[in-house]
């Protein structure tokens, strides 16, 4: 919005503060239900959300962005929800959080890999820049494939659940990894970005349905 000139920086900052305040207000009820662990998770989430692109050392400008995505979009989100429902954590909930988080981190990695040259010009040092294109491809492959490997321990921990439908996107994932390795940096990665999001969504949906049914 700022780069396109639709909004100035002050307006975007006010909108960000309003979003944080709304989330914190909604989180007050969750804290009442889940107690101090949810309070700590909420505070950490707000601080990390601000620190991701704000502060003296924005996380988005470092190789740690993907790690924070795994922590908050994966483990924090899944385990926090599980805690609210059961007031406990299990290995399966942590493994499911990691699976979801790795796929979310893969989305960010595609974005950073696509923009690596432009980001380097403005002083950003993302994981894609630090690792280089070859290692980044291997990291992307790991982020995309490890969630499928985690289905085995999740299935062992939840014998009444049926996690195997989440394997359906695996062939598409293999094709996407191949495309990632062959595609030159540029607009072509927009398609890979969209398809990564689609696989992430499909995996999460099928895993949730399998466990619930």
How does this structure look, described?
The chain starts with 8 loop residues before the first helix and ends with a helix. The chain contains nine helices and no strands. It has 213 residues and is mostly helical. α2 runs antiparallel to α3 (65-86) and α3 (65-86) packs antiparallel against α4. The chain has one domain. It is flat. 30% of the residues are buried.
List keywords for this structure.
single chain; 213 residues; mainly alpha; 9 helices; flat
Helix content: over 70%
Specify the number of helices: 9
Q: Order of SSEs, N→C?
A: HHHHHHHHH
What's the overall geometry? Answer: flat
Low-confidence parts, pLDDT < 50 over ≥5 residues?
A: none
Largest sheet: none
- What is the average per-residue confidence, as pLDDT, rounded to a whole number? 92
Using only CA atoms, what is the Rg?
18 Å
Q: Provide the β-strand percentage band.
A: under 5%
Number of strands: 0
Q: Helices and strands: which structural class? A: mainly alpha
Q: Tell me the distance between the termini.
A: 42 Å
Strand and helix map with partners:
Blueprint: H1 9-34, H2 36-53, H3 65-86, H4 91-114, H5 116-121, H6 127-149, H7 151-157, H8 170-182, H9 188-212
State the gist of this model.
By secondary structure, the protein is mostly helical. The protein is 77% helix and 0% strand. It has one domain (21-212).
């Amino acid at each position: 919005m700022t780069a396109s000139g639709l909004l100035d920086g002050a307006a975007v900052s006010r909108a960000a503060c309003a979003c944080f305040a709304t989330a914190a207000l909604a989180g007050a009820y969750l804290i009442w239900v889940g107690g101090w662990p949810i309070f700590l998770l909420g505070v950490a989430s707000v601080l990390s959300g601000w620190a991701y692109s704000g502060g003296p050392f924005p996380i988005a400008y470092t190789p740690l962005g993907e790690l924070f995505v795994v922590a908050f979009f994966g483990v924090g989100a899944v385990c926090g929800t599980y805690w609210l429902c059961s007031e406990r954590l299990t290995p399966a909930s942590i493994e499911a959080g990691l699976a979801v988080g790795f796929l979310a981190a893969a989305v960010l990695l595609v974005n950073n890999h696509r923009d690596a040259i432009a980001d380097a010009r403005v002083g950003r040092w993302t994981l894609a820049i630090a690792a280089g294109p070859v290692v980044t491809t291997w990291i992307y492959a790991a982020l995309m494939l490890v969630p499928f490997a985690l289905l085995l321990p999740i299935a062992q921990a939840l014998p009444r659940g049926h996690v195997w439908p989440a394997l359906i996107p695996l062939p598409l994932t293999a094709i996407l990894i191949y495309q990632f390795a062959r595609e030159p940096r540029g607009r072509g990665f927009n398609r890979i970005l969209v398809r990564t999001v689609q696989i992430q969504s499909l995996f999460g949906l099928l895993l949730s349905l399998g466990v619930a049914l």
